[in-house]
User: Fold this.
Amino acid sequence: MQQQDKVIDVRGVLERNCTTTSVDELRSQGRSRVKVINAKQISALIEEAVARAIDALRNSSTVDTNAVLEASRVEFQKLVAEREEELREVRAEKLAVEQEREALRSEVAEKQALEDTVQRAREELQRVLGSPALEDLENVLRGFAERERGEETQRAESLHRELEELDAQSRELAQRLEQSSRENDEARRAQQRAEAELAALKAERDAAAQALQRDRAELESRRGAFASQQDAVRGAEAASNQAMSAILAELRQLKDTVEKAPAAVAQAPAIDASKMMESLGEAMDKKLDKLGRKLGMSSGPELAAGISFDGLFASSSNMESNLEQVEVKEREGGSIQDAVARMKAMRLKPTESDS
Assistant:
């Protein structure tokens, strides 16, 4: 029982083992902060730990003192840890309060310093206001203010004039812009007209190009036709030359026949000149008909009716003709030979000129 009293009376042990020291002595030792042990709290912790240990061992049949002490120590350590955690939280809150208090002290000190500065400024201002130099300063400030007002008025008037000039320039610029807009519209319309005219010119050019193409095609076609015609003309000329050669050959043959005629005429008693000319014309008609067939021309009566042999005897201005004065029935054969000779001479002149 005595041993249990010694274990439980922790407060008395702490009080007996504690020493008392003043704060000044601690400050003189360089300690600004100290840790304080609350004997009541420690005693309560120990008592609570012992009570918890006894409750845990109450159901046991035998009580071991060492087990009780060990259990009490464990519970005490748990309680100390819990109280230390609570103490740390309290210290943190206390530190925050101290910091806030220090901040308030600093703010109060700054405010006090500001109030002192304001007070000194008030005293200095009162001293200055009471001096004669203040009137001079007021006069200087008043003159400066008047000059500023005058300069401000001048600046305002100048600014007003500049604004009026800017307004006039703005109106002029607006007029120019309007004129430029009208000119741009007119230029745009002119451009549209020019584009329309250009499109029309392009269309005309395209139409002219197409017409030129057609003309070229037609020209080429005509050139081909003309070439064909030239070939045909050359063929016709060749055929005509052949025909003329044939005519000349026929005329030469006729010439030979005429040259041989005097002998036959001399043997004949009397020949009618008109019949001879008629037979000669018929022979010429036959030759011409034959030649027309070769050239592909019609040789009907209408063609023969339009043929005149007067040209055969009108090619020479020196040609003499006395056929109207010839009386064949009353003449002898010699006069007919002379007439045939004269006709032969007339035939030879154009033939020789042609050859």
Q: What stands out?
A: The mean pLDDT is 69. Residues 242-354 form one domain. DSSP finds nine helices and no strands in the chain. The radius of gyration is 82 Å.
